[in-house]
Amino acid sequence: MNEGYIAVLESIASSNPTPGGGTVAALTLAHAHSLAIMVSRLTVNSEKWADGHQIANTIISTSDEQISKALNLASADSLAFDAVMMAYKLPKVDPEARKNAIRQATIDAALAPLDTMNSCLEFLQNLNQLSKGCNSNALTDLASAAELAISAAKIAGFNIKINTNHLSGEDIDSINTQSLFIFDSCTILMEEIISTYEDRLGW
Fold first, then answer.
1. Where in the sequence is the domain holding 59, given as residue range(s)?
2. With CB atoms counted within 10 Å of each terminal CB, which end of the chain scores lower, N or C?
3. What dihedral angle (degrees, nearest 10) is formed by the CA atoms of 199, 200, 202, 203?
């Protein structure tokens, strides 16, 4: 591992509240993308896996974009929570304005991991397609990518729940409903992926 990678881990391990779980969720998704790209490249390298070439090429062609997006989601999550901390430090001369600022910042801190969950869902949809025709020698790497993605979605969901837990309103209900729906959709896809790779591997 290079120094930059180690620096990220040390930053997470520090006593600072950011980067925290939401950022780690997005970074986990970035790792999932990297594994999926590797599986895709191993797939297009041989005509034996021609059935998987189309989705593999799609994953490869968007690889830089998807990894950059995941890294941006990681940064956005940390920035969103930093904004919550800043809101709590606002002077109490105008209690109502301070309360509204805290509420909005907290909502924004929930929306950041919601974006990560949406990206996890999109990723698992592509991975489900790839699982059916990819290089069978890389199926455990694909399985690992899927596990990382479902974990990322779950971690992001935790961060949504902790931010919305003490808030109420239609906007909050909408965020929570979306979060539950996305995770349920991710779970269904995960089950399909597991069924496919276990069948192909004879497990």
1. 3-201
2. N
3. -60
CATH number at residue 169: 1.20.120.680
Give DSSP secondary structure letters for 75-132.
Answer: HHHHHHHHHHHHHHTS-TTSHHHHHHHHHHHHHHHHHHHHHHHHHHHHHHHHHHHHHH
Does the predicted model carry a pTM greater than 0.90? yes
Q: What is the dihedral of CA 95, 97, 98, 101, to 10 degrees?
A: 160
For 163-193, what is each residue's pLDDT tens digit?
A: 999 999 999 999 999 999 999 999 999 999 9
What are the counts of helices (DSSP H) followed by strands (DSSP E) for the chain? 7, 0
Number of domains present in the structure of the chain:
1
Q: What are phi and psi of 89, to 5 degrees?
A: -90, 0
What is the distance, to the nearest Å, from the Cα of residue 4 to the centroid of all Cα atoms in its chain? 21
